[in-house]
Description:
By secondary structure, the chain is an alpha/beta fold. Helices cover 40% and strands 23% of the residues.
Amino acid sequence: MPALTKKPLPANRQLQKVPTGISGFDEITEGGLPKGRPSLVCGSAGCGKTLFSIEFLVRGALEFHEPGVFVAFEEKAEELTLNVASLGFDLQKLQKDKLIKLDHVHIEKSEIEETGEYDLDGLFIRLGYAIDSIGAKRVVLDTLESLFSGLTNQAIIRSELRRLFEWLKAKGVTAIITGEKGDGTLTRQGLEEYVSDCVILLDHRIVNQISTRLLRIVKYRGSHHGTNEYPFLIDEDGISVLPVTSLLLQHDVSSQRVPSGIPSLDLMLGGRGFFRGSSVLVSGTAGTGKTSIAAYFANETCNHKERCIYFAFEESPQQIIRNMKSIGVDLKKHIDNNLLQMFASRPTQHGLEMHLVDIHKKVRRFKPRAVILDPITNLVTIGSVSEVKSMLIRLIDFLQAEQVTVMFTALSLNTIVNEQTDEGVSSLVDAWLLVRDIESNGERNRGMYIMKSRGMKHSNQVREFVIRDTGLDLVDVYLGPDGVLTGSAREAQQLTEQTGELLRTNAISMKDVAIQRKRKVLEAKIASLQEEFESVQDELNKSYIEDELRKKAAGKNREQMIRNRQTKNLGNGKRK
């Protein structure tokens, strides 16, 4: 039997969706809300239902050219306009441009008489007129429970709810109905039974006196969607949802290197620094210079005309700027040049998820090449070790996907909680720098180790970490008779060796002088002997020459005597 293959549905049979324009939400729902159908947004008071609905309308009108109608059963149009102005939404202008129509339906419980003839025909007429007047494609009904607040007959309520939702579908509008959370149910009237295509639950949770807003898609018929709880943030730009499930381990990696700002540290990392898009942890005890290292990295990033965001959880930006001037770093100029942004807050200001959403949003907006969190250890005050680790995993994944280099600083203490925190964080990062106190001879110095650096050769030696007025430096390893020396002990040993070197140089110089003198004496003796030898040689040569001359003279004399005798003999013969 041949294997069955799953064929994609034709385009005309796929569920059509309408993008909401809400940051992150469309990614979770893979496109937005179901087109032409009502969706339920429910939750307790203060969770953000009305703001979610308003942004759905405003984004639709401004970004997707789809006018919308907002029908409120609680707030008046003037109150609603004033409330959302803080988000940057000008509802008055949108109404003048006929992009949005606000309508307030006043419901007075005392005026409602529950009878069997109760119906919503008046609402249908009013809503239909509003839709047709601006050609609306989107509708919001907020909050529907108010419409039935004075009724107890469930049969009438359910009958009219079915009529309302069928009427909205017949009009072909994409609608959001908001509902208050009931006791053990998603809404008081059980709206989820009728709006069954898409149900969104908003929650405002308070844990350890820290509030966190969360969003969950309870159901979405005919579509894939994220099933987790997603933190969302409400600020001056509206609602931002962090799509956690989209942060998968599928990001690209870079072999490009970025300098740390400390040349001697870069040499320990193969001479070129960290990988771009990697994560770096700088841990150590209090006062070891973790913030200084982070500030140098931020300064170096900005010096290369790249943007950086600095999140501080202990000190204010003004404190950090002032303190870094003492070691030769001017962060203020980078802020003025829009290359550096610094944000400071106590961890207890938000929950972990809200911090994650806030960082996510700021990175997307500013588009930095480097991010610094100083220190992450403080996050333990608002969550358990496992929660902090989970949050940092998602943050690292997001930043690596964006090719952003991130540097964390962490405080190391001799407590169980912080040791677990360090171990949890250090296993996540690509590079881990450990700065540790080295106490000896009654003084405290600093030593730096590279505990790990994935994908590159790095030094396995400990270096003395020095903080001077001129900046940060790592002193080369110095081995004395008793091992590695730091601080004044290193300087004393260096002075001792320098003194010994001077003495050795002086002794060598004295020996050179003596040798020179000895050489000159020997050379003089050699010259004297050479002269004596040449004198004797001359005498010997003179005697030899004289003997040769005598021999030559004697030979000539003999020859002359022989000739003379021959001449005499010839004369005697003639006489005869």
